[in-house]
Amino acid sequence: MQVEIITPDKELFKGDAVLVQLPGIDGSFEILNNHAPLISALKGGAVKIKKNKESKEEFFEINGGMIEVLNNKVLVLAE
Description:
The chain is an all-beta fold. It has a single domain (2-78), classed as F0F1 ATP synthase delta/epsilon subunit, N-terminal (ATP Synthase, domain 1, Sandwich). It contains no helices and 7 strands. Strands 2-1-7-6-5-3-4 form a 7-stranded mixed beta sheet, with no helix packed on it.
């Protein structure tokens, strides 16, 4: 799936991933390939991205924001 994490200042990440873990306001949750459409609010914390099964995880700190998942594309609008 395609993942994009952007802030008002810059783009933190853009690329393909097999897993995205996010700090939701009601708790942490994960997005995998072919996830159902979703819009959710995020709280501050770490966004974990795994590019493929063999790769190491990458972490990006955010201060909150929103996520949209649609048609295997994940868009994170972060503060």
